Amino acid sequence: MPHKILVVDDEKSIQKLISYNLLREGYEVLVAGDGVKAIEIARDNKPDLIVLDIMLPGKDGFEVCKQLKYDTETKHISIIMLSAKDGEIDKVVGLEIGADDYMTKPFSPRELLARIKVNLRNKKANNTAKSAIKELVFDHIRILADSYEIYVDNTRIELPPKEFELLFLLASYPGRVFTRSVLLEKIWGESNLSETRTLDVHIRYIRQKIEKEPANPEYILTVRGVGYKFNDMKLQ
């Protein structure tokens, strides 16, 4: 079965450009020209990945991403956001609400295809890893792999998929130090150290949700000058 890709852009020329290149690679392609239609198609068809423009009529790309990532039926769909703006704040906002990747216009169709392949490959690898480990328990934290759920003191905490995958990876190897480049490669499919702000933002948000004192973390520890590790003293 070919992977199913939803292309969301109100510019017909961009829709056609992306769709043409995807079809040449053997993907099944769906299209939407506004945010409301994008959510409807995503919920009805469950695509493997969405190429999502930010500037859309009806609902903008940020709102579409937020609604899909916080819906249990669609939260596992990978999202690559497109923007005519190259400001860092837009990228950070997109990644914070759960987007898997971010590209600015104009873009290279070849690079977009490469990023789509990386995201789909990483998604498959993450699913394979989680199939081997069903549950992780540390003191007052419980992580359920299949359902992307986390409980802190028996209270369910919502994590966007990228935050969950980052936490799951670290917690799966307590005590192991992951460099920033390795974490970027495994979770985002790139080891470019210029993207470390993206990683650090996600770590900060995870700490705010699982740590009693985020400024003095007990679980996700910083290894200065190297990266991060999960505290192996917390393993039950």
From TrEMBL:
<dbReference type="InterPro" id="IPR016032">
    <property type="entry name" value="Sig_transdc_resp-reg_C-effctor"/>
</dbReference>
<dbReference type="Pfam" id="PF00486">
    <property type="entry name" value="Trans_reg_C"/>
</dbReference>
<keyword id="KW-0238">DNA-binding</keyword>
<dbReference type="GO" id="GO:0006355">
    <property type="term" value="P:regulation of DNA-templated transcription"/>
</dbReference>
<keyword id="KW-0805">Transcription regulation</keyword>
<dbReference type="InterPro" id="IPR036388">
    <property type="entry name" value="WH-like_DNA-bd_sf"/>
</dbReference>
<keyword id="KW-0597">Phosphoprotein</keyword>
<keyword id="KW-0902">Two-component regulatory system</keyword>
<dbReference type="GO" id="GO:0005829">
    <property type="term" value="C:cytosol"/>
</dbReference>
<feature type="domain" description="Response regulatory">
    <location>
        <begin position="4"/>
        <end position="120"/>
    </location>
</feature>
<feature type="modified residue" description="4-aspartylphosphate">
    <location>
        <position position="53"/>
    </location>
</feature>
<dbReference type="GO" id="GO:0000976">
    <property type="term" value="F:transcription cis-regulatory region binding"/>
</dbReference>
<feature type="DNA-binding region" description="OmpR/PhoB-type">
    <location>
        <begin position="133"/>
        <end position="232"/>
    </location>
</feature>
<dbReference type="Pfam" id="PF00072">
    <property type="entry name" value="Response_reg"/>
</dbReference>
<dbReference type="InterPro" id="IPR039420">
    <property type="entry name" value="WalR-like"/>
</dbReference>
<keyword id="KW-0804">Transcription</keyword>
<dbReference type="InterPro" id="IPR001867">
    <property type="entry name" value="OmpR/PhoB-type_DNA-bd"/>
</dbReference>
<protein>
    <recommendedName>
        <fullName>Stage 0 sporulation protein A homolog</fullName>
    </recommendedName>
</protein>
<comment type="function">
    <text>May play the central regulatory role in sporulation. It may be an element of the effector pathway responsible for the activation of sporulation genes in response to nutritional stress. Spo0A may act in concert with spo0H (a sigma factor) to control the expression of some genes that are critical to the sporulation process.</text>
</comment>
<dbReference type="InterPro" id="IPR011006">
    <property type="entry name" value="CheY-like_superfamily"/>
</dbReference>
<dbReference type="GO" id="GO:0032993">
    <property type="term" value="C:protein-DNA complex"/>
</dbReference>
<dbReference type="InterPro" id="IPR001789">
    <property type="entry name" value="Sig_transdc_resp-reg_receiver"/>
</dbReference>
<feature type="domain" description="OmpR/PhoB-type">
    <location>
        <begin position="133"/>
        <end position="232"/>
    </location>
</feature>
<dbReference type="GO" id="GO:0000156">
    <property type="term" value="F:phosphorelay response regulator activity"/>
</dbReference>
